[in-house]
Amino acid sequence: MRLLVKGGRIIDPANELDEIMDVLVEDGIIIKIGINIDPQDSEVLDVSGKIVCPGFIDMHVHLREPGFEYKEDIATGTRAAAVGGFTSVCCMPNTDPVVDSAPVVRFIREKAEKAGVVNVFPIGTISKKQEGKELSEVADLLAAGCVAISDDGKPVKKASVMRNALEYTKMFGIPVLSHCEDLDLSHDGQMHEGYYSTIYGLKGIPDAAEELMVARDIRLAELTGGHIHLCHVSTRGSIELVRIAREKGINVSCEVTPHHLTLSDEILGDYDADTKVNPPLRSIEHIQALIEALQDGTIDCIATDHAPHHREAKDCEFQLAAMGISGLETAVAVIMDRLVGQGLLDMFDMVRLFTCGPAEILDLDRGTLEIGKPADITIIDPEAVRKVEPEKFYSKGKNTPFKGMDLKGWPVITIVNGNIVARGGIIV
Ligand code: DOR
Ligand code: ZN
Which ligand is nearest to the CA of 278? Predict the structure, then answer.
């Protein structure tokens, strides 16, 4: 089976490529890239006017299975990923049971194989039961197929546990993904602490709640030589700490979410629980710092922190509502419309942040359009305009603060291992 992706603008940052060319795929592998490739007996996909990228990778999603299938499962979550333009997702281990043993990893991989439509790379826990007390059997988790470890959803409270995790993972060359939050400072907080939390009468979460842990974990990475990856950084102070760490040669990487880049704490005034997320949406000055950090390369990748919730978890008193945003189906359009479309981010950099950026952090053999590599391809129509309609999401999580917004620039075709899995927002 041959597929010729014809006439698109290929952007492949890993190979410094930005040119109109064709891509020829055979049996799931990229076999040729060039100008005017002879179609011979291939199925031809005319993508003129579209942007052809390596398959996008989302290194931070919550697929919720096993245990929380009423919020999301592997079948729905990977479909949401595919229509959102993602060919690979890494799933966080705060499931039930948590991913702290090889059988749970195997369950996820088998389920993904059977019911999933994109590549799924599981992440195991740092600590047993995600209790922050004792290190998980990390070697077993990696042998079973985990690509990293994280206690995401919660911070690792004890510095000694984080130290051991960083020390131990060095041997395997994988990062520790840290959810940076000082629970004592963030306690009961509902939104970012600042002018608007005062006006709206909601308990605030100060930027320092994140930054204290960023500082601790960077210092522990320095102590151990391990690789710390900071999940969903959201404050100016965190960015400043990462810059200093980089200058010192400390092994640190970080991600930012589309919502933290584009929405400010002012919108919490509607008391819409779909805006409630952890870390919280910050103030404009923090957003400006995040965008600058995207532009200057301080931020390594964009990840959604796709956190689907069932309706009852959001349609309740604001204080009781669950935290999280369903992000897979809007991420690319949000970045295209709000950043690329506004001249705040180059298209080339955006593709890097969704492809070789995350692939490099996790050492995945993906994220580039190279001959001989699996044909994971994301095709974007920069002119497509569509409204965000959560009721049409493949994800069970309809919890998005972007609902009703008209966005320009959408993923239109997603190809995984040579197969078209999504087209025009529909799973094929
Ligand atoms: O908003 C969030 N939701 N932040 C997290 O860290 C966890 C996530 C979840 O699992 O729902
Ligand atoms: Zn998360």
Answer: 1
Say which ligand is closest to the CA of 154: 1
Assigned architecture for domain 2-51+374-427: Roll (2.30)
Name, in order, each residue with C-beta under 8 angstroms of 82's C-beta and a sequence gap of 6 or more: 117, 118, 394, 414, 416, 421, 422, 427
- Of the CA atoms within 13 Å of residue 268, those in its CB half-sphere come to 28
pLDDT at 260: 99
Q: Which residue has the tokens 């000694």?
A: 160
Span 55-362 CATH architecture:
Alpha-Beta Barrel (3.20)
Cα of 35 from ligand 2 centre, angstroms: 41
Mean pLDDT by 10 residues, the chain (428 residues): 96 98 98 95 97 98 98 99 99 98 98 98 98 98 98 98 98 98 98 98 98 98 98 98 98 98 98 98 98 98 99 97 98 98 98 98 98 98 98 98 98 98 97
Residues 334, 407 contacting (CB under 8 angstroms) = yes
Q: Is 153 in the pocket of ligand 1 (CB under 6 A)?
A: yes
Positive or negative torsion for Cα 308, 313, 315, 319: negative
Res 1: pLDDT: 85
Of 110, 106, 105, 119, which Cα lies nearest the Cα of 77? Answer: 119
Nearest protein Cα to ligand 1, atom 6 = 153
Give dist(CA 360, CA 363) in Å, integer: 5
H or E element in which residue 132 lies: none
Every domain of the chain and the residues it spans: 2-51+374-427, 55-362
pTM of the model: 0.98
Number of alpha carbons in the 13 Å side-chain half-sphere of residue 227 = 18
Q: How far apart are CA 268 and CA 319, in angstroms?
A: 12
What DSSP state is assigned to residue 51?
E
From CA 421, how far away is CA 428, in angstroms rounded?
5
Place of tokens 């040729």: 32
Q: Would the CB of 323 count as within 6 Å of ligand 1?
A: yes
Atom 4, ligand 1: residue with shortest CA distance? 278
Query: Could you list the active site residues?
Result: 305
Q: Are strands 86-91 and 204-205 parallel, antiparallel or unpaired?
A: unpaired
User: Cβ(186)–Cβ(175) under 8 Å?
Assistant: no
